[in-house]
Each structure stands twice: as C-alpha cells, then as structure tokens.
Write a structure and sequence with these properties.
Layout: E1 5-8, H1 12-23, E2 28-31, H2 36-40, E3 47-49, H3 50-58, H4 63-68, E4 70-72, E5 74-79, E6 85-88, H5 89-93, E7 97-99, H6 102-115, E8 120-121, E9 125-130, E10 138-143, E11 146-151, E12 154-157, E13 175-190, E14 199-203, E15 206-214, E16 217-224, H7 235-244, H8 248-253, E17 259-273, E18 276-277, E19 280-282, E20 288-289, H9 297-318, H10 322-349, H11 357-372, H12 374-385
Parallel strand pairs: 1-2, 1-12, 2-8, 5-14, 12-19
Antiparallel strand pairs: 3-7, 4-7, 5-6, 9-10, 10-11, 13-16, 13-17, 14-15, 15-16, 17-20, 18-19
Helix pairs in contact: 1-6, 1-9, 9-10, 11-12
The protein binds adenosine-5-diphosphoribose (APR) and P-hydroxybenzoic acid.
C-alpha cells in the first residue's frame, strides 16, 4: 500500500487530520487499533474553544454542532459556600465556547469519512513505524489477518497517550515534562437537564464541576481519591457528594436521575518535546496530556491538527517545508499555554491532600483576588479562551 500521509490513530486528532488533508487534495490512510464502536463509546470532555469551533465550521463539520451544541460566554466559580462569580470570556476577549461532546465530534468525523469513502482501517494490529528519520518511512501492521506494508511520505502519530508513535522518537532526542496530581475525577453522565452554566466548585470536601452535553444531558464530576473504586459509588452517593460541594441554591437546582455512564480519570500533565522527528509528526494526546480542568485536551488536539494540516497542505501545493519545519515549536507554544492554564485551574480549584495551612490560605486568597479583580478575571478569560492561532 502507498499513501502520502499515514495517520496512526482514529480518535479526533487522526480523523480530523485526514478530513482536512482530503479537502486539500492530500491522500491519507488512518490506522486505528480499536473497533469503531469502541472509539465511539468513549466519553470525554466537551467544551470547545472558539478556535476549535471555527476549525470545525471552516471544514464543513459544524452543522450538527451548531444545531445541538450549547453556546456560552464563560464559566462560574464558587467556593466554600459563598456566592458564585462569572468569568465573562465574551466580555473580556470577545470569544465564546460551545458545549458539544467529543463523542458527537467523533460521530461527525466518522460520518464525514464514510461520505468521502476515506481509507480508515479499524482493528489494525501490531502497528510499527519504520525508518521515520529517512526520506522513505513506512508503517507495517496486520489487518484482517494479513501483514501490510504502507509506504508514505509522512507519518502523523495521532495515537493518544498510550500509542506507539511517540516511542519511535529516540530517547536521546525526546524530552518529557510530567506532573501527576494526587487525586482523580469521578464523572457521571445523566439524562437530566443541566444547570444553565458550567460551574466549578472548590469546597473543603473537594472540587466539583457541573457541565453539560445538551439541554437534556448533564455531565458532573467530583474530585475523588486516586484509589477510590467505582463500585463504591452508587448514584445516590454521587449525587449527595456533588450537592454537598455546592452552595444550597445551586445544590437545590441540580436535577438528579440515573447515571448512564460513570468513570474515574486520573489527573496528569505531560508534554513531550519535540513533536517532530524526521518524517514523523505527533499530534494530540500522543504528544501531550492535560488534567481535564479547563477542558483543553480536545482543543489542543484540534490546534495541533490545524497547524499540521496547514503545513502538509503547503508542502503538497508548492513544495514548501517552512511550516513543517516550524510545526513543533509553533504547536508547543499553544500546548504550553494550555498546559499552564489547566495546571493553574487544577491548583486553584482542588483540595490537595498534603496542603499545608499556608497552601490553603494562599489558595483562598487567590480565589478572593480573582473574584474581586477585573484584571485577574480578564487574564484568566484570555487563558481559558485559548491563544489565537499563529499565522
Ligand atoms: N495503533 C493504532 N491506533 C492506536 C494505537 C496503535 N498502536 N494506540 C492507540 N491508538 C488509537 C486509540 O485507539 C484511539 O482511538 O489512537 C486513538 C487516539 O485517540 P485519543 O486518545 O482520543 O487521542 P486524540 O485523537 O489525540 O484526541 C485528543 O482530547 O479530550 C481529550 O484526551 C482526550 O481523547 C482526547 C483527546
Ligand atoms: C466537561 O464537560 O467534560 C468539562 C467541562 C469543563 C471542564 C472540564 C470538563 O473544565
């Protein structure tokens, strides 16, 4: 087999890359380890930055999002039972957000791939990257019991944090920056009307978040110890813990119901540098992970794909490698901006098990400052909205 760009991984990063490349007349093959049903069953974050919304719309992927998504202007923060305050991102930086689940984006991407008859191979096994630092890289794998050899010009590693692509970068080239947080998020999805805003809570019992997927689908999270077991969390226990972390008027407004999904996620920040080695380019979770606070993960995957697709399109249309050569540095500037924002929000909003009295007081005064200062709110709004793309 032969293609221009071999894309490893059919999550949002891989499928979006193949979609945009196709619009620029660039051929690709997507190699996905899991079944389509499995990929579509994953519940992930669902708040899209303006830049992400723009990329989806500009590439013909905005129709259902504009119909079903919930546009909003910012988020609320509440702590220790006090009154909540609103970070008005629209007012400060004239950008908005869209609540629209990653699962729905993944469905839209598969539908678009079917419409253009894209080469998306599911359930491929034993993917190996060969000769990535030469002019003739290739990818080998097994599919339907046969061994396949895929020649290509470039390889896009979009295979998430546990994928194989990053491992193809030699250890003496790769630099890793990593931080693990001493708690996880227990999340549920329920077919109940959400609160009208996204509301983050910092409470002595721990962090909580009220979010949404649609007018009839709510997403809620509570901070939980890393070793907590999902079996120990009945729906009733979850709802009472969630409500205990919000002030009474908000707790009373939460509509409870049976959960349709419940999961625990650890929190980690991870960045690898560079995001390119030879003909291999990493995008999305393959290169970086952020804690979910701030919902930056999917947005970063989209921004990497925006830069990478633009660079590959420039190469195939007029032979220029300037954008490809600048990809890693340019993508990493946006990555680090969001890594910093999600780290800041994680520190601001969670209760850390080992926090000293000093740590606790400074966190409270940081929240006080944010609540009372227009400048602090403007600074957070700018970061929460995400950087504009570089030219
Ligand atoms: N070969 C082929 N495919 C692989 C391999 C492999 N060895 N390893 C992993 N994959 C596939 C996974 O099955 C998955 O479908 O790569 C895909 C990676 O998708 P994601 O993990 O969703 O990562 P990405 O596309 O970068 O999406 C960005 O945003 O909200 C965040 O973390 C969240 O997944 C989300 C991410
Ligand atoms: C979500 O809806 O899953 C979500 C929303 C906001 C966040 C993180 C996750 O900061």
């Amino acid at each position: 087999m032969k293609t221009q760009v071999a894309i490893i991984g059919g999550g949002p990063a891989g499928l979006l890359l193949s979609h945009i490349l196709h619009r620029h007349g660039v051929d690709s093959v997507v190699l996905e380890k899991n079944s389509r049903a499995h990929v579509l069953s994953r519940i992930r974050a669902g708040v899209l930055e303006q830049t992400t919304v723009d990329v989806l719309r500009q590439n013909g992927l905005g129709t259902r999002m504009d119909r079903q998504g919930h546009a909003h202007d910012g988020m609320k923060i509440v702590w220790a039972g006090r009154e909540s305050f609103f970070i008005d991102v629209k007012k400060h930086v004239n950008k908005r957000f869209m609540a629209y689940g990653q699962t729905s984006i993944q469905e839209d991407l598969f539908d678009a791939a079917d419409r253009r008859n894209a080469k998306v191979l599911s359930e491929v096994e034993d993917v190996q990257l060969v000769d990535v630092a030469t002019d003739h890289p290739c990818v080998t794998f097994r599919h339907n019991g046969e061994s396949v050899h895929l020649d290509c010009d470039y390889i896009a590693g979009c295979d998430g944090f546990h994928g194989v692509s990053r491992k193809a970068i030699p250890a003496n080239v790769l630099r890793v920056f990593e931080k693990e947080y001493p708690f996880g998020w227990l999340g549920i999805l329920s077919e109940t009307p959400p609160l009208p805003d996204i509301i983050y809570a910092n409470h002595p019992r721990g962090f909580a978040l009220a979010s949404m997927r649609s007018p009839t689908l709510s997403r809620y999270y509570v901070q939980a110890p890393l070793d907590t077991k999902i079996e120990d969390w009945s729906d009733d226990r979850f709802w009472s813990e969630l409500k205990a972390r919000y002030p009474k008027e908000l707790a009373d407004a939460i509509v409870t119901g049976p959960s349709i999904e419940k999961s625990i996620a650890p929190l980690r920040s991870f960045v690898c540098e560079p995001m390119r080695h030879g003909q291999l380019f990493l995008a999305g979770d393959a290169a970086h992970i952020v804690p979910p606070t701030g919902a930056k993960g999917l947005n970063l995957a989209v921004s990497d794909v925006f830069y990478l697709s633009r660079a590959l399109a420039a190469f195939y249309s007029h032979g220029s490698t300037t954008l490809l050569d600048g990809y890693s540095e340019m993508a990493l500037r946006r990555v680090w901006s969001s890594v910093r924002t999600s780290w800041y929000l994680t520190n601001l909003l969670h209760r850390f098990p080992q926090a000293s009295d000093f740590d606790q007081r400074t966190q409270e005064f940081e929240l006080d400052y944010l609540k009372s200062s227009h400048h602090a709110q403007a600074a957070l709004a700018e970061q929460y909205a995400g950087l504009a793309f570089e030219q």
